Amino acid sequence: MSPTAPHDGCDLLAIGAHPDDVEVHVGGILALASDRGLKAAILDLTSGDLGTRGTAETRRIEAQEAAGILGVPRFVLDFPDGRFTEDEAYRLRLMAELRRLRPRVLILPAPEDRHPDHRRAHRLAREAAYYTGLKNYPCPGSPFRPEALAWVGGENPGQPDLLVDVSAVWARRMAAFDAFGSQFDQDPSQPVTRIAHPAFRRGVLGRAMHWGSLRMCDWAEALWCERPVPKALTDLLARLEEPA
Predict the structure, then answer these.
(1) Rounded CA separation 243/168 (Å)
(2) pLDDT tens digit string along 117-159?
(3) Can you give the pLDDT at residue 5?
(4) Contact 219, 28 (CB under 8 A)
(5) Whole-prediction pTM value?
(6) 155-162 long-range Cβ contacts below 8 angstroms, 24+ apart
(7) Is 229 helix (H, G, I), strand (E, B) or coil?
(8) Can you tell me the distance from the alpha carbon of 52 to that of 210, in angstroms, rounded to the nearest whole number?
(9) Cys-Cys crosslink for 84: which of 9, 79, 116, 204, Cβ 3.0 to 4.6 Å?
């Protein structure tokens, strides 16, 4: 069961198709938000029950540990991994959760990615974020629409629209990533997977170092968004990079 969300809503909500998706891309942004006193949270659509390594229960435990490291609450919708669709039944459940959490800024999975769930989650969440603002749409909760949408990149994302300096929280951000031992540990007793290969972790580090070089900082995380950049998003980024 999801814990109760703040009644006045979130400043930032990051959606992942699976536990660990958010930590791969924007764990630093969430840690910064927590440190700046903003209300941030993670919403996983599934528990990752089809994953080659680990179990749904293991991944739930790891996910809560990671969220604790970042300093944010985490909620799970328990859609069936790999089998959720863009049908209205799933959109309504996500819309009801958005009306409950009421995020000012919503971060989505990548629209183009090698994992079909990530692509589908982006489309589903983007539609839900629009329809949840319609007063006459039959859905639990009061109508609400996020003021800004952004999304993470896939493994070959191209030039970002926005870069956030996360150097101050980098060690914590990677501790949250590493909390998902069932997925990322180099364990020879477990099946071989692409994300458990050392090169996957090096890719996370390499992209963050490259983006940091563009910002002239040690580590940065990237976001993509529609143009012009929504004011709610620029306001959020300004808050994130305020001196601690």
Answers:
(1) 10
(2) 999 999 999 999 999 999 999 999 999 999 999 999 987 778 9
(3) 39
(4) yes
(5) 0.93
(6) 155/113, 155/114, 155/203, 157/110, 157/222, 157/224, 160/211, 160/222, 160/223, 160/224, 161/222, 161/223, 161/224, 161/225, 161/227, 161/229, 162/222, 162/223, 162/224, 162/225, 162/229, 162/233, 162/237
(7) coil
(8) 30
(9) 79
